């Protein structure tokens, strides 16, 4: 099936929130100046995946709220990650963080170039989303620097 990536608009917020809640992720998303979402839609315009980038400061960003449909393969997820990273780099972000709550996602994130951090940078604590995610028992912060 054909999928298209695009940057979400404020009008997409209700659809993204419903998709996040269906995927058991926290809703309450607003498309704001510091947070941008990339959505993946099928040929019928139905949401199949989303990933947000919360800009923490000029050079650092937090990848957040990844939810994907069971229709998507690993290649689609890689494409979503790469699109968000490219978007971040265009905004000046050269260091990306992600909070992983499931050990199963660590292998995939390692393939994407993320490495676990022992010490969480102060900039990550600025994000209310990161703080909430870090409350979970198995939460780990991973980092990736742009090449």
Automatic annotation (TrEMBL):
Gene3D superfamilies: 3.40.630.30. It comes from the Bacteria. This is General stress acyl-n-acyltransferase. It comes from Bacillus zhangzhouensis.
